[in-house]
Amino acid sequence: MGKIRSCLASVGAGIFHDVKARLPWYLSDWTDAWNYRVVPAAALIFFSNVLPGIAFSLDLIETTNQYGIAEVLVSTFMAALVFSVFGAQPLTIAGVTGPITVFNKTIYNILANQPDPPNYLHFIGWVYLWAAVIHWVTAVLNWCNFLKYVTLFSCDTFGFYVSWIYLQYGVQVITRQFSGGFVSAAVGIILAILMVLTSFIFQSLSQRPYFHRIIRQFFADYGMPISLVAASAMAYWGRFHSADVVTLPVGGAFQAANGRPWLVKFWELDGKWVGIALPFGIILWILFFFDHNVSSLIAQGSQFPLRKPPGFHYDFFLLGITTFIAGLIGVPAPNGLIPQAPIHTTALLVMGLPTRDNEEDYVAGRGGPVVTPRTEKGQYEVSAYPNDIPHPKQIPVAVVEQRLSNLVQGALCLILLTGPLLHVLGLIPRGVIAGLFWFMGADALQGNGITRKLLYLIRDKSLTAADEPLRKVRTSRLLLFVGIQLVGFGVTFAVTQTAVAIAFPVVILLLVPVRTLLVPRLPFTPAELSILDGPTASLHTMESVGGSL
Question: Which helix (DSSP H) or strand (DSSP E) does residue 380 occupy?
Fold first, then answer.
């Protein structure tokens, strides 16, 4: 009897504790936004969220003829509004992702092969409703505590997969342009390469010792948006203009695809299809459980000096609400974005000098700087060094934890739905979008744990730092660990390309039991596993789900 009472008492406890922990910070979430870092963060995440979301949906738009760019923008705005105003983790950016477009397109193909197919949007509405109900059950029953078993092993593998999906979609965007003629496709390739090169040049200059630090910071903050605008403008310069490059398709202002009403009456679906929609809803729940929560973990990674508490249970309940609304108005369901997750938080970093007492610990990797936050003003005190002592390298000392940048990038999506700005959006060449995919995919690969381990394996050991942790791992064990991750990536990527692509979320979720049940039985020492793997986020962040593995 006591066990039953204990279980009943825990119902909704995760949501309650999330709200209780985050609510005292709500006012400061808005007052702390009075900081310049919010401006470049909003601009950067707007470009890196909206345009890839539109590009991902192009395949869905052209295949199903059920969605348009307006649906993508409305979905992004809805997610930004809900999570920035009501969410417990406003740093997490939600939008239309590649996996959801694959999911929706696969359902369309399955239904199209039926002798008497139902209305697509009505069926999707029920899929989203079933998924939303399971989201709410998950949050109320505290199933997000399962995240304590999600380590860098799973996150790096999934992040590696998403990065390659970005690269693949960039190639697809280019190859589809050949249907419009070789010259148009060739110009598209040139624009894509120009977009990639200029973005990486700005990124490289921001990390070099050239120019004043304000200029370097400007390159880091606005390099990618400038590259996108410049590459798009090149399509209309000189003889490039005569190539008639393929641009983004746009519809009417605030108009849904095919002129349909924004309200989808999915309750009119025939009863037999309502039951058939349930398995698809379960698969969507699996996808969002892993995708959204991993995105939240990465956005609040251990490398970011965060002060404010997280809220996984509560935010997953909100994700159920946005999923339901998406089905109700006929837009792709938004969820957390993987490559964009650290981009937003990184753009909000405040750099400074570590305290003298902690400088040696930070350099040795044993700790971080001591930062005294002034919560009421959103300012941070960082220790000063005398002029006669060489200053150490600046490190992250704080994050501007606020809600405004997420809300602004969502509001810009709504503004983009107006007639004049839709016309401007329709001027962006698809080749530039391909370049944006390549840049974001390659940039995400640079920071991925699998990539770093692979680069270590081919590095000249005589030029490797003596304190490199991977030196303490036997090469055979490093190869085994990375090999398992690459197999997981390969299986996930392969499934996505087949007729059973709709099952790929299940493969992704299996990464967690592989790490918790299989890997510890392999010939790794505890010390080696602690170096090869670890918690995605800090203990401060993982408290919301009961700690880490």
Answer: strand 379-381
